[in-house]
Amino acid sequence: MLKRVPKSVWWVVAGILMVAYGWIFYTSLVGPSGFRWRAVFGDPDYPKGFDIHGIDISHHQGEINWDRLRNAMIDRSPVRFVMIKATEGGDYLDENFEENFHEAREHGFMRGAYHFWSTKNGAREQAYFFLEKVPLEEGDLPPVLDVENKPSDVSTEDFQRDILTWLHIVEDRYHVKPIIYTYYKFKEEFLSDERFDDYPYWIAHYYVKQVEYKGKWKFWQHTDVGKLPGIKGYVDLDIYNGSYYDLQKLAIPPRQVEEEENTNMHQSPDSTERDSVMPMLEAD
Fold first, then answer.
1. Catalytic residue among 137, 148, 212, 258
2. What is the reported pTM?
3. 146 tagged catalytic
4. Hey, which bits of the chain come out as E strands?
5. What does pLDDT average to in each consecutive run of 10 residues of the chain (284 residues)?
6. Is 148 designated active site?
């Protein structure tokens, strides 16, 4: 019976199947990742309506040519800020942190430093390790906690208490709210608690034209395949949700740095700072 079907019918069926396959391929693969494909093979679509651009870096970017990066442009706007990986867990210091941290300020960027949360170390251990290794100064952006994982054997309530412990210890040192970095689904699932609402939020959400998270946020990491002069390979690109004046107001002011130096010069992790955190946690 199939041999008696006219060839014209076979061609029509084949055409319909090709169109259907093409539609499925585009909607399931090309469409959702189209921004990434354009970013890798051409010019990315930068988020519209934002003028303050920045990057975040670690040892993965290797040795950076800061003289070239100083004049880099993102969507015809200068790079204003650089977020730098500093520490991870309770004992890891990024091998390029000290150089990157120094060079960022020397070349006129607003700089920030972030700690990558580890599920293998305690909150206090991680907080004090960060404070020991990261010499934030006036004009620097607030300290950042990068949290992307929750242990499966820890309840959400206990996990949130651990995160708040880190935030409170670091806030007690600098008297500014640390920035929380995470991706928007993780925020909605594990950090949707009013106790986190006052912290500046840095959201990672790639290859979309706008952030799907409906809450307040300050920074948006919108792609991990940015290309800039002075950096070999790819680099994360970020925007700030506000004006440059607002970004400067977010920075650590001189008086808070002086207070940190005066009150914490001889303070150990087991003394006043730890004691001041506990009532805050118990109240929560």
1. 148
2. 0.77
3. no
4. 52-57, 73-74, 77-88, 92-93, 110-116, 144-146, 179-183, 201-204, 219-226, 235-240
5. 63 75 57 44 73 97 97 95 98 98 98 97 98 97 97 95 98 95 92 93 89 89 94 96 96 69 52 45 45
6. yes
